[in-house]
C-alpha cells in the first residue's frame, strides 16, 4: 500500500517501513521537532495558570 509522507509529501510504502507514516527517520524527527516547538496545537479551551497563593493554614 502506498501513502504520502505527511512531512515531505513523497510517496512511501506502509509495509516494512519502520518510520510509517513517514518516509524516513529524518521526516519523523522533523515532525517530532515541530511538536516540541509547539508548532502544532490542539484546539481547546484556554487553561488558567495556577496562582501562587500562600498556605492559609500556616500561622
Give a quick precis of the structure:
The chain is of the alpha+beta class. It has one helix at 25-36; strands at residues 2-4, 11-13. It contains 1 helix and 2 strands.
Describe this structure in words.
There is one protein chain. 20% of the residues lie in helices and 10% in strands. It is of the alpha+beta class and 59 residues long. Strands 1-2 form a two-stranded antiparallel ribbon. The chain is elongated and about 60 Å long.
Radius of gyration based on Cα positions: 21 Å
Assembly type of the chains comes to single chain
- Uncertain parts: none
The N- to C-terminal Cα distance equals 68 Å
General form: elongated
Largest sheet: 2 strands, antiparallel
Q: How confident is the prediction overall: mean pLDDT?
A: 86
**How many beta-strand segments?**
2
Order of strands across the main sheet: 1-2
Report the portion of residues in β strands. 5-15%
Q: Which keywords apply here?
A:
59 residues; alpha+beta; elongated
Topology:
Blueprint: E1 2-4, E2 11-13, H1 25-36
Antiparallel strand pairs: 1-2
Amino acid at each position: 500500500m502506498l501513502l504520502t509522507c505527511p512531512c515531505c509529501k513523497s510517496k512511501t510504502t506502509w509495509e516494512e517501513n519502520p518510520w510509517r507514516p513517514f518516509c524516513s527517520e529524518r521526516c519523523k524527527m522533523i515532525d517530532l521537532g515541530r511538536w516540541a516547538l509547539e508548532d502544532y496545537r490542539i484546539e481547546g479551551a484556554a487553561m488558567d495558570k495556577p496562582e501562587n497563593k500562600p498556605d492559609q493554614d500556616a500561622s
